[in-house]
Amino acid sequence: MNLKLSDLGRKDSLPPTRHTVRRFYEESVIAVTGGVGSVGAELVAQLLEMDVSEVRVLDNNESALFEAEQKYVDEPRFKAFQGDITNEWETLRAFSGVDYVFHAAALKHVPSCERNPFSAVDTNINGIKSIIRASQSNHVKKVLFTSSDKAVSPTNVMGASKLMGERLFVAANHMSVGPDNGTVFASTRFGNVAGSRGSVVPLFCKQLQRGGPLTLTDERMTRFIMSLREATELVIKSMVYAQGGDTFITKMPSLRVADLTQVLIDVLGPIYGYAPSEIETRIVGARPGEKLWEELSTDEESRRILEGQRYLCVLPAANIMQPDIEDRYKELGLKRAVRVYNSHTEPKMSYDEILDFLMIDGVLPTEVRALISKMRRAQSEAA
């Protein structure tokens, strides 16, 4: 992929520009399901930085919703709706008068979904059906589903449920007809979002605070990775790009999880009062359904994929024979490509690149990043 870490922070690396994005959402009413989760909360924060009319959050986490209401107590555009996405009445109510829907609610943890597959199906598949029907009934303009690279050739319940979500959105878009061509349904797919709840970086930090050990499932494990804010910015742009039935995939750097643990041990160990040599890394074995590597698309999808500097776009299988299909994406700089991005075969982030990545806002706690910056300055002055 040869994707540089610096590319991730480029807000205007592809059209539409930041100005165009802001114009797109101007005076819009937007709903975010799972809006108090890691991605959802960041999405809400970024949307409220724009000139939107209203941002509605639909979530079943009462405590987190209360905290969000306190955070935005002076923000009249923020509206909280407590409810479950599997309850179609709740989604119908929340989506009334809405222009755009970001569907970020999900059960996303692989071990939890393996232990509770019926709950995963209910939330990640039946919940999607509720979202689709409520969006169509309320004549929502566009709906974007936040999927995962685990939907590619899935080996676990979570990945399989995300794949079904993508396919349901493709089907909904195909059947969405009307005087204005109906509601547009599209998806976006990204990898591990560092700093989000349940991701490896917060887990490793907690283990380091206790002096270890750091639990590594397999030394060969690789992952695509990006920061929370970067992922959210790209989701916001995907809504603008979406033509219908398409799946946008953000191109991300790849790293060895073992390399990540070593950087964290070297940098955070001394901050927490431990010499790096004192901290053990323990191999615990892969969890049920867990892969050693991830892919951004399948071999089958490679026959209908477009590629640009920052994006891949999987076209819906039913539309690939349309003669003008590629013309719709020309302004994005997307062209036909036949390849599969695999975290195992892509160039890996170096030690310094991983360290720079950890310093991106939101990846590590602010106070920890401040301590690291202070330590790096001291080392630089000593040199």
Descriptive overview:
With 383 residues, the protein is of the alpha/beta class. The protein has a domain at 5-191 and 227-252 and 294-337: Rossmann fold (3-Layer(aba) Sandwich), CATH 3.40.50. The protein has helices at residues 18-25, 38-47, 62-71, 88-94, 110-115, 117-137, 157-175, 200-209, 228-241, 257-271, 351-358, 366-382, and strands at 29-33, 54-59, 78-82, 100-103, 142-148, 184-190, 192-194, 214-216, 222-227, 247-250, 254-256, 281-283, 305-307, 311-314, 335-337. It has a ten-stranded mixed beta sheet with strand order 3-2-1-4-5-6-10-14-13-15, sandwiched between helices. The longest helix is centred in the first third of the chain and has 21 residues, at 117-137. It is globular, with a radius of gyration of 21 Å. InterPro entries: NAD(P)-bd_dom_sf, Polysac_CapD-like, Polysaccharide_Synthase-Rel.
Topology:
Layout: H1 18-25, E1 29-33, H2 38-47, E2 54-59, H3 62-71, E3 78-82, H4 88-94, E4 100-103, H5 110-115, H6 117-137, E5 142-148, H7 157-175, E6 184-190, E7 192-194, H8 200-209, E8 214-216, E9 222-227, H9 228-241, E10 247-250, E11 254-256, H10 257-271, E12 281-283, E13 305-307, E14 311-314, E15 335-337, H11 351-358, H12 366-382
Parallel strand pairs: 1-2, 1-4, 2-3, 4-5, 5-6, 6-10, 7-9, 8-12
Antiparallel strand pairs: 9-11, 10-14, 13-14, 13-15
Helix pairs in contact: 2-9, 4-6, 6-7, 8-10
InterPro entries: NAD(P)-bd_dom_sf (IPR036291), Polysac_CapD-like (IPR003869), Polysaccharide_Synthase-Rel (IPR051203)
Domain Polysaccharide biosynthesis protein CapD-like: 30-311
Protein name: Polysaccharide biosynthesis protein
